Amino acid sequence: MKEKMIKAYLARAEQIIGKRTPEETAHDDAVVAGLEMGLPIEAALANAAQKHPAETLSWDNSNIGDIAAHYDYLKEHAQILRKLGNQKRK
């Protein structure tokens, strides 16, 4: 049962996140790292843009909330993956 739930979660996460290039993944990981350090979304995006300028996102007050929600999801997803990885080691 547990394995079935994990597979279902991972399949749904893949649908939500979609296919990403290695460059997009690196940018997203940089944004998530900033958020995990406690940076606000704007600062996390700015830091990621410095490291991965080709993947820089355009944002303004009309879409920053949606962008923040997306990266909050990615942050939670990363935490879940780490927990799943730790469980497999036990």
Structure description:
It is a single chain. The protein is mainly α and 90 residues long. Helix content is 76%, strand content 0%. The chain contains four helices and no strands. It has helices at residues 2-17, 22-36, 41-51, 64-89. The chain starts with a helix and ends with a helix. The model has no long low-confidence stretch (mean pLDDT 92).
Q: Structural class per helix/strand content?
A: mainly alpha
Morphology:
elongated
* Largest β-sheet summary: none
Q: How much of the polypeptide forms β-strand, as a percent range?
A: under 5%
Cα-to-Cα separation, first versus last residue: 19 Å
Low-confidence residue ranges: none
Instruction: Domain count, please report it.
Output: 1
The percentage helix is: over 70%
Could you report the average pLDDT, rounded to the nearest whole number?
92
What letter string, H or E per element, gives the SSE order? HHHH
Number of strands: 0
Number of helices: 4
